[in-house]
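> forwarded from #structure-qc
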């Protein structure tokens, strides 16, 4: 009787999974319906005296922080081939703007920037990896959108980089950066599939009444290689990616121009799965702490000098007084750890993005006319 119950349960679960994946949509009127083969899975339930192989339970909502602490490291989903943001070199070393935030979370939790396991994820599988629990947090130049927030069940952290989509073209085709989209009438444009970039490209060219031919690739590196080989007239991506990848990949970067036109808003932010406020709070407040530290001129080089400060804002931020860290389940000096081992927001920016000529602009502090602003630590 117990075996029959197990078989029925699995069949119900299989039905649910197929339904969640979309299943077979009803055929339009007049079209034949294709019936796919059904596979029945039989599960043996152990009888008295037998032992089943234990299956680790999935992480329940609200338990991710404890799971990470018990495991002893942060599993962080990153890019892998995006220089300046998330890059794995031939020696196996990880670098980049997004990568450093992963190290900052590890520093906050474990006082160890090496307590991170990086997972290189494609644009197509990044959100699935987060939803399934394969990674604890996603730090992979991902745009915060309504659909991703509400429909995919993600909770985005603070925006770490404000970007916008742009187009790069050969100067022989578009000599002036001030030229509009009309200069690309009939052009072939390389674009990565499965991204907001592909959708924005179609929207903007349609709105401008400009005809173009998309040349689609699953991988951005393949798109850049095709552009370098002359298989398309232009390439589109976030402005930051065009600048960093362009300098790294193109044989003569000076022969290309990034048009001034901004085709979209691209607020790039880390993300965690919904339903775990504690873990989300940790991700949020580490980033905010790095922004606040820059505002207070606290760096990795001088942070120890600020430990004797009489400024209550500084003392709370660094955990010298108050119990802010303990309210998150962390050491009260978790921001001190982050600044000491990784640095403030500005330091991370200067190390990884300034070498590519990316000016701070919107990514400067609010006190300098930018958008970077941290809530009060009190």
């Amino acid at each position: 009787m117990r075996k029959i119950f197990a078989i029925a349960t699995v069949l119900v679960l299989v039905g649910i999974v197929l339904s969640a994946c979309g299943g077979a949509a009803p055929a339009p009127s007049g079209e034949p319906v294709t019936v796919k083969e059904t596979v029945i899975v039989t599960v043996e339930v152990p009888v008295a005296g037998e032992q089943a192989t234990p299956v680790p339970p999935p992480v329940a909502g609200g338990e991710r922080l404890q799971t990470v602490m018990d495991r002893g490291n942060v599993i962080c989903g990153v890019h892998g081939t995006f220089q300046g943001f998330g890059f794995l070199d031939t020696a196996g070393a990880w670098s980049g703007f997004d990568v450093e935030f992963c190290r900052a979370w590890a520093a906050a939790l474990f006082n160890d920037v090496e307590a991170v396991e990086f997972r290189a994820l494609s644009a197509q599988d990044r959100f699935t990896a987060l939803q399934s629990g394969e990674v604890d947090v996603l730090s992979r130049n991902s745009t915060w959108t309504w659909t991703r927030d509400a429909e995919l069940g993600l909770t985005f952290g603070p925006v770490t980089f404000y970007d916008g989509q742009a187009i790069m073209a050969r100067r022989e085709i578009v000599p002036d950066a001030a030229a509009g989209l009309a200069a690309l009438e009939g052009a072939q444009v390389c674009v990565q599939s499965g991204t907001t970039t592909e959708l924005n490209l179609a929207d903007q060219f349609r709105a401008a009444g400009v005809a173009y031919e998309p040349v689609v690739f699953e991988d951005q590196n393949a798109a850049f290689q095709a552009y370098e080989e002359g298989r398309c007239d232009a390439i589109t991506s976030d402005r930051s990616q065009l600048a960093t990848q362009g300098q790294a990949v193109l044989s003569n970067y000076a022969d290309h121009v990034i048009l001034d036109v901004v085709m979209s808003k691209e607020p790039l932010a880390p993300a965690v799965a919904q339903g775990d406020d504690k873990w989300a709070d940790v991700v949020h407040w580490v980033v905010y702490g790095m922004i606040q530290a820059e505002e207070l001129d606290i760096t990795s080089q001088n942070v120890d000098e600020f430990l004797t400060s009489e400024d209550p804002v500084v003392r709370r931020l660094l955990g010298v007084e108050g119990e802010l860290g303990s309210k998150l389940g962390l050491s009260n000096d978790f921001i001190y750890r982050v600044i000491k081992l990784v640095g403030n927001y500005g330091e991370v920016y200067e190390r990884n993005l300034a070498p590519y000529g990316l000016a701070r602009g919107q990514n400067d502090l609010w006190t300098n006319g930018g958008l970077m602003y941290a809530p009060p630590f009190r």
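QC bot note: The chain has three domains: 1-21+38-46, 64-161+268-368, 165-264. Confidence is low (pLDDT under 50) at residues 1-58.
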